[in-house]
C-alpha cells in the first residue's frame, strides 16, 4: 500500500474545503464575465520580491533532461518555466514527454542507465514505488528550503516517503469542476448551474431536450473515468471510506462502491445525454472532450475535468474564459460537494547540482508565477502572487485550493500502484472503460476492479 499522512483528514475538513471551493467559484461565476485574461497576463521572467534573492548556480554548458506526461499546450506552458531557468543558469534543458505510462517509461530509462535528471510523477503510488527501489535522490538543502517556505504541510507530506523529502508538487489540479458552455445553457433556458447530482441530471436532460449534447466525456483516456468515480464516491461515501478504499483497506466489492457505480450509471447509461453516446465517449480523448464542448456546430453543454481544462479552452478553441466558458463545483451527490485534488511531483533521478538547481527553481515563487501566467495551471505554492494567474476563473480556483490548506483528498487512482491506477489499458482505467461500455453490469465491474486491485496492491 502507498498511504501518506495527508489522508488523516476529518470529514469536517472536507466540508470546509467544499464550502471554500463553492464560495470562490460562485464569485467566479458572477464576477468574471468581463475577464478574458487580457490585461491579466503575468510578467513572465520577472522575479517577484520574494524570489529576487533566489540563488541558482551557473550551469553553463550542462545539459539537463526533464520528463513529464504533458504534450501540446501544457508542454508549451511549462517550456516558459524552463526558458527562464536556462536564462538564469546557462544550462541547456531538453523536455521529454513520457506518454501516459509514465512509470513504465521512466522505469525503462532508469534500468537502462539513462534516467532524465528530473521527472514529474503524476501518481503518489509511483513516487513511493520509485523511492522504495532507491531510484530517487532526496531534496538538497536549497530545494527543501523553498519547499518549506512556500508549501503547506499537506503538500510537503505528499512529496515525502518514510520521512525523507523527495519531491515538490509544483503543479496541482482541482479535479472537482464542471465546465459549461454558457451559450448552450442560455439556449436551453438554464439560468443556474446545478448544485446537486439530481439537479445535474435534470440539467443534462434539459440540454438534451433542447437539442444539445449534454455531457462530453473523454472516455478514451481511462484516467478521466477514475476522476468521475472519485468525485461521486467521495461525496456519497464520505472521506473516511474514500481513504479506506484508496489504501485498499476495504474491497471494491464493498456496498459503497456499488452505490457509486450505480449513481454513475444514471448518466453513463443514457446514450442521449452523452456527446456521441457511450461509443463516441469511448473514442474521445480528453483534449477532444473539451474542444467539442466549446466549438463546432453542435457543441456539448458540459465537460467534467480539472482546472487544466482551461489550457485546452485557451489553446484549442475561440471560447473566452469567464464569458463563453464558465465553471461550477462538481455537484454534491451526498451532503457535500467533493474536493479531489491531483498533482505532479518533481523529483530528481540523478545526483548533481543541475537537478537540484532545477528543483529549487520549481519550488520558488518565481517559477510558480511564470507558469501561472501562461494559463491552464494552478500551483499549491501559497506564497506566490495570485494576481499572476491569466484569468479570473483560474485565479478563483487557485485561491480556493490555497484557502483549503491541507483539507483536500488526493486523487485515489494516483495513490494506487501504477498497475492498478495509472496504466493505460489495464486495471482501473480499463475496468471503468468497460463499465462505461456496459453500465448495467455493476456487480461485474466491482468484481473486475477488486481482482485487479488485489493483484496490484499485493505486488506493490
TrEMBL record:
Out of the domains of life, which is the source?
Bacteria
Keyword Transport appears in the UniProt entry: yes
User: The organism's lineage?
Assistant: Bacteria, Bacillati, Actinomycetota, Actinomycetes, Kitasatosporales
- Say yes or no: keyword Mitochondrion present: no
Q: Which residues form the signal peptide?
A: 1-28
Name of the featured protein: ABC transporter substrate-binding protein
Q: Which UniProt keywords apply?
A: Signal, Transport
Q: Which InterPro entries match?
A: Bact_solute-bd_prot1
Region Disordered: list its residue ranges. 34-56
What family does the entry list?
Belongs to the bacterial solute-binding protein 1 family.
The scientific name of the source species is Streptomyces cellulosae
Q: Give the transmembrane ranges.
A: none
